[in-house]
């Protein structure tokens, strides 16, 4: 029987799902993808319906009803609390790991914060082809890794390693990495130049309802780039190009529009340069906090699409990364790389699902037939009610037995007191 694992990257707009065959290997790189597709979330009232459609399509595609799903890991755009996820922009979408496990007969189910999934995805990179090196540094095996990524928002995570025995017999140390979530993108924005101080005051006035605190995500992100542009157009009205300005302000994706006009509009170029400078400062802050001597990886959508703006000459990204006073020499030892792969979250979910699947065993022939169709919600409810009735019955029976025992003991004590010699 084929052992499969399901991985997914579930955002607010799209649900990307894939199935990998883990029958012959626990190694992520050796597991072939047997089915992959993407769905628009707006077309489904519940995530259960998305997964049901995906599994049915996979069965038809594979033409094999005998497979079983050993593990599923989903990267989700939201906080994971007690194995449950609620999507703020889709109120009907409440993902519960236990419900999905029972409804679809999956051995193990786990949810990951989407940026933690990016952290695990680093472990799958073919670095010569999928990374651009900004600073070679002095890489050290087994040391922490860190990932910082600006896109719609600003995410940060870090990975730590522990040594494991080498089963290959070659005698080399094998490092097992675990990723950890942070909210590093919400630390305070700390300006360095006079212009950045003015930007901070502008953002304080703009977001005054938040107690005059400004997070670095307000500056280093897609929306942050728009905030910087709006600040600059207000400070330098004589530099505004009306047609381009109108396109930016009316666009649904102002950051992409600004990036498109960086070689035609001086304000757009200045906004991009300013954001990249601050981006470099924040990456340096992250490097000081995590000391990732195995590498600091820059992910997210902004860096790979604007790679030239991270290089010396276009911005002070690396200069600002290294300028940390007395500890600047430490940062020169840390490798800095830009991740070019676009499916890092899905890869990270695959890594975690493969680890979970390596500890599972195929079902027996007696239970294999039950895996041909996923259990519907009403079947799950019926089973739950059946177990509840059994619990109530046995609880009542124990109560009756305890009452009888208490009554018997009371009678014996009364009889003993009556018959005891004076």
What would your notes on this structure say?
This protein has 422 residues and is of the alpha/beta class. The protein has two domains: 1-125 and 343-375, Nucleotidyltransferase, domain 5 (2-Layer Sandwich); 184-340, 3-Layer(aba) Sandwich (Hexokinase, domain 1), CATH 3.40.367. It is 42% helix and 21% strand. Strands 8-13-12-9-10-11 form a six-stranded mixed β-sheet, sandwiched between helices. The chain has a five-stranded mixed β-sheet with strand order 3-2-1-4-7, sandwiched between helices. The protein has a two-stranded antiparallel ribbon with strand order 5-6. Strand 1 (3-10) and strand 2 (14-21) form a beta hairpin. Helix 6 packs across helix 8 and helix 7 (242-250) packs antiparallel against helix 8. The relative contact order is 0.14. Residues 364-379 have low confidence and may be disordered.
List keywords for this structure.
422 residues; alpha/beta; Nucleotidyltransferase, domain 5; Hexokinase, domain 1; 6-stranded mixed beta sheet; 5-stranded mixed beta sheet; transmembrane; ATPase_NBD; Glucokinase
């Amino acid at each position: 029987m084929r052992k499969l694992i399901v991985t997914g990257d579930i955002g607010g707009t799209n649900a990307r799902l894939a199935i990998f065959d883990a029958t012959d290997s626990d190694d992520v790189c050796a597991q072939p993808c047997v089915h992959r597709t993407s769905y628009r979330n707006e077309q489904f009232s519940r995530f259960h319906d998305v997964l049901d459609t995906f599994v049915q399509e996979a069965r038809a595609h594979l033409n094999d009803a005998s497979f079983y799903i050993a593990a599923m890991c989903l990267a989700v755009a939201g906080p994971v609390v007690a194995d449950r996820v609620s999507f703020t922009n889709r109120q009907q979408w409440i993902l519960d790991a236990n419900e999905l496990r029972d409804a679809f007969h999956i051995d193990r189910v786990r949810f990951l914060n989407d940026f933690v999934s990016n952290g695990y995805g680093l472990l799958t990179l073919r670095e010569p082809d999928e990374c651009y090196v900004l600073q070679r540094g002095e890489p050290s095996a087994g040391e922490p890794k860190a990932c910082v990524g600006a896109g719609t928002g600003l995410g940060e995570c870090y990975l730590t390693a522990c040594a494991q025995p080498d089963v290959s017999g070659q005698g080399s140390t094998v490092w097992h990495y675990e990723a950890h979530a942070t909210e590093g993108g919400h630390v305070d924005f700390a300006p360095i130049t006079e212009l950045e101080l003015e930007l901070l005051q502008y953002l304080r006035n703009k977001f005054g309802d938040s107690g005059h605190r400004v997070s670095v995500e307000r500056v280093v992100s897609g929306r942050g780039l728009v905030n910087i542009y709006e600040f600059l157009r207000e400070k330098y009205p004589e530099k505004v190009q009306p047609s381009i300005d109108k396109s930016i302000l009316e666009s649904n994706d102002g950051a992409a529009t600004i990036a498109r006009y960086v070689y035609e509009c001086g304000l757009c170029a200045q906004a991009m340069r300013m954001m990249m400078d601050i981006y470099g400062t924040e990456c340096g802050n992250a490097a000081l906090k995590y000391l990732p001597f195995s590498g600091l990886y820059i992910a997210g959508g902004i860096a790979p699409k604007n790679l030239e703006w991270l290089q010396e000459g276009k911005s002070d990204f690396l200069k600002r990364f290294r300028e940390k006073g007395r500890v600047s020499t430490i940062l020169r030892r840390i490798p800095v790389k830009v991740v070019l792969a676009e499916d890092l979250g899905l890869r990270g979910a695959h890594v975690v699902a493969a680890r979970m699947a390596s500890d599972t065993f195929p079902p027996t022939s007696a239970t294999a037939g039950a895996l041909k169709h996923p259990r519907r919600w009403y079947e799950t409810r019926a089973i739950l009610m059946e177990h509840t009735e059994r619990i109530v019955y046995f609880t009542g029976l124990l109560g009756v037995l305890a009452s009888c025992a208490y009554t018997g003991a009371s009678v014996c004590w009364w009889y003993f007191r009556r018959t005891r010699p004076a």
